[in-house]
Amino acid sequence: MTSTHAELAKRHRAVLPEWLALYYDEPIDVERGEGRHVWDAEGNRYLDFFGGILTTMTAHALPEVTAAVSEQAGKVLHTSTLYLNRPMVELAERVAELSGIDDPRVFLTTSGTEANDTALLLATGYRGSNQVLALRNSYHGRSFSSMAVTGNRTWSPTSLSPVQTAYVHGSRRRGTPLAGLPDEEFTAACVADLEDVLGQLHGNVACLIAEPIQGVGGFAVPPDGLFAQFKEVLDRHGILWISDEVQTGWGRTGEHFWGWQAHDAAGPPDIVTFAKGIGNGLSIGGVIARAEVMNSVRANSISTFGGSPITAAGALANLDHLIANDLQGNAARIGAVLRGELDGAVGRIPAVAEVRGKGLMIGIELVHTDGTPAPELAGEVLEEARRGGVLIGKGGLDGNVLRIAPPLSLTEQEAREGARILLAALEKAGQR
Ligand code: PMP
């Protein structure tokens, strides 16, 4: 008899696009979740170390979110932002309060892509230019303009584009000439590259859009303070800084609430974008900008579902839970436990070139004996970890980085159990 999963995978492949990535040789249908665990339709339980690409921020099926969503669904499903919407106003107030930006305004969207699109709309309009800067190896979404600022070509088919993008160095991608430099030299080289690129462009440049730690790019962490140095250069030219916090926001890095705060010296970004985790699975994102920048748009513009009563009520409950339970602090503590378990793999398991990241955002880079990227090995470890009962992700320009980003409520016991399974998977796959 055909299994439920195999049959669904066949139907999936028959009707959905070929370019829609699907994990695992035998894809799984995740049906239910609770806490840090999920169950598939065949009854297998997994410890979720990827949280649906960092969407499950607090915990699966968090009762407060479920209650807020059901209550709101029982009242009014959706009207439109043409009417007052209490959950949207309350969520925007909360986000503004947490933003660290002066005189902030918040616009709510349905996704990270829409948030970045909006940020580009704001920056290009405000600056009167469609020339933008982005980092090499970046990922910012899948729309026409967010793909146009996505440096990672695996995710960005080259195409005609509404913005002109120039790419600068700013991510410590292993194997590149800059990656091995000490922090200060790496930072100086990136700043020199920024100056160099600016020198080659003519006319106004609108903005630099960047992830504080590249997510899809493989959790490559730049030196703290790099963006403060970038900002000094940008400020001289009046160029705006957009920090894409879709993966790094809400305390994920443990040490800070926002990723940009590791670079705080020169002040906050002009625009921050967010999505994923704030909704704990609900499709909501947004943009925060200084009033002057946000209000520079001179046309009506609404997002029909952005900040709908249901998603806003759920996001607010999720955010309240995150803060009341200090899940940022938990990310720092449990992230350190996980690193304690995983760091030893470097040197012990030959394929593990590097374990890196911050808080509960941990990447493991896999290489062949000659040091070249080992994407097939990453695929095997993913399979092996699943067989052991742990779901992880992968990424990196070469697809050879394992990505670990569990819900921020991960317990110490779960961290140790997951690490044990993952290390066993690494050893087993590495021996083949
Ligand atoms: N920015 C970053 C840094 C992301 O990681 C992603 C999603 N992986 C996006 C933007 C796009 O978000 P969404 O898929 O919600 O449109």
Describe it for me?
The protein is of the alpha/beta class and 432 residues long. Helices cover 39% and strands 16% of the residues. The protein has two domains: 4-58 and 326-431, Aspartate Aminotransferase, domain 1 (Alpha-Beta Complex), CATH 3.90.1150.10; 64-324, 3-Layer(aba) Sandwich (Aspartate Aminotransferase, domain 2), CATH 3.40.640. It has helices at 4-15, 51-54, 63-75, 86-98, 112-127, 144-148, 183-200, 226-237, 291-294, 309-324, 327-342, 345-348, 375-388, 412-431, and strands at residues 30-34, 37-40, 45-48, 104-109, 131-135, 164-168, 207-210, 240-244, 271-274, 285-290, 352-358, 361-366, 390-391, 393-395, 401-404. The strands form three sheets. Strands 4-10-9-8-7-5-6 form a seven-stranded mixed beta sheet, sandwiched between helices. A four-stranded mixed beta sheet has the order 1-2-3-13. The chain has a four-stranded antiparallel beta sheet with strand order 11-12-15-14. Strand 1 and strand 2 (37-40) form a beta hairpin. Helix 3 packs antiparallel against helix 10 (309-324), helix 4 (86-98) runs parallel beside helix 10 and helix 13 packs across helix 14 (412-431). The longest helix is centred in the C-terminal third of the chain and has 20 residues, at 412-431. The chain binds 4'-deoxy-4'-aminopyridoxal-5'-phosphate (PMP).
* Most strands sheet: 7 strands, mixed
How are the strands ordered across the major sheet? 4-10-9-8-7-5-6
Mean pLDDT: 95
CATH class label of the largest domain: Alpha Beta
* Distinct small molecules bound, one entry per kind: 4'-deoxy-4'-aminopyridoxal-5'-phosphate
How many angstroms does the end-to-end distance come to? 31 Å
Which term fits the overall shape? globular
The percentage helix is: 25-40%
Count, helices: 14
Strand content: 15-25%
Listing every helix as H and every strand as E from the N terminus to the C terminus, the arrangement reads: HEEEHHHEHEHEHEHEEEHHHHEEHEEEH
**Low-confidence parts lasting 5 or more residues at pLDDT below 50?**
none
Secondary-structure content class: alpha/beta
Overall number of strands: 15
CATH structural architecture of the largest domain: 3-Layer(aba) Sandwich
Would you give the CATH topology of the largest domain?
Aspartate Aminotransferase, domain 2
Number of domains: 2
Radius of gyration from the alpha-carbon trace, in angstroms: 21 Å
